[in-house]
Write the structure tokens for this entry.
Amino acid sequence: MRPASGAAPSDTNRARRTVGLPDAAAPLYTVSQAAQMLDMQPAFVRRLDTEGVVIPARSPGGQRRYSRNEIDHIAALAGLMSEGMTLAGAQRIIELENEIADLRRQLATPPISTTAR
């Protein structure tokens, strides 16, 4: 018996499959794609690699491949730079923010008891 037109197939008739989505660290995006997502010039995105601020993975052909994490980092840098920060200043602010977040996570984690009874 076939389901009515537009009806969802029964869960009992088919094995459930999950779609594996790439994680945020997967290097999927080219310079052009990253620049388009960030609404900036590809030359600026490449400059960040040249200066060692963001170091993307490379494809077998040598093309830069950016992850979502790296694109988010570039967006944060660009936001700070649009407020008048230099590239070095923006990078340092992000480093300090990351250190603060790490310290907060450490403080939120209860210490492991080392005393045995």
Notes: The mean pLDDT is 86. Residues 87-108 form the longest helix (22 residues).
